[in-house]
Design brief:
The protein has a single domain, classed as Alpha-D-Glucose-1,6-Bisphosphate, Chain A, domain 4. About 25% of the residues lie in helices and about 40% in strands. The chain has helices spanning about 15-25, 25-30, 120-135; strands at about 5-15, 40-45, 55-60, 65-80, 80-85, 90-100, 105-110. Strand 4 and strand 5 (about 80-85) form a beta hairpin. About 15% of the residues are buried.
């Protein structure tokens, strides 16, 4: 559990806001980008995209050595603009979608866990966001 501090990652995505939003929120898209490195993948995603609804993303090493479910509950949704959720361990995650002229700035804030260094967590979350950017563009 975090002490309330947040780490932030961001990416400028050169794609229309509605497409970025759809690819972030729909399970059939999540499985295509939700991993930090090509040695991992997301074989399954389930999303009940509503306030009080939940998501479950299965994360697995391609070699079968490790896997886990990342579960969250949606706390707030402002269509095309903001999503707040809480991971099953109580940590909060916030995502902002800021539309620009020809791109979307996606900012993601998250409360870190205590097992890994802050730098490692920031790098991992940024790597996933970079995968998302590549998938959208």
């Amino acid at each position: 559990m975090s002490n309330g501090e947040f780490l932030e990652v961001s990416a400028t995505i050169h794609a229309p806001l509605d497409q970025v939003w759809e690819k972030w929120t729909q399970a059939e898209h999540v499985v295509n980008w939700n991993f930090a490195h090509e040695s991992w993948y997301c074989p399954k995603a389930e999303v009940d995209f509503s306030v009080g609804g939940s998501s479950v993303y299965r994360m697995e090493a391609r070699d079968g050595s490790f896997g886990f479910d990342l579960k969250a509950t949606f706390l707030a949704i402002e269509v095309l603009s903001f999503i707040a959720s809480e991971l099953e361990d109580g940590r909060k995650v916030e995502v902002k979608f800021i539309a620009g002229e020809n791109a979307v700035l996606l900012q993601q804030r998250f409360q870190p866990e205590t097992e890994n260094t802050l730098a490692l967590q920031q790098q991992g979350w940024q790597a996933i966001l970079n995968q998302f950017k590549s998938y959208c563009e």
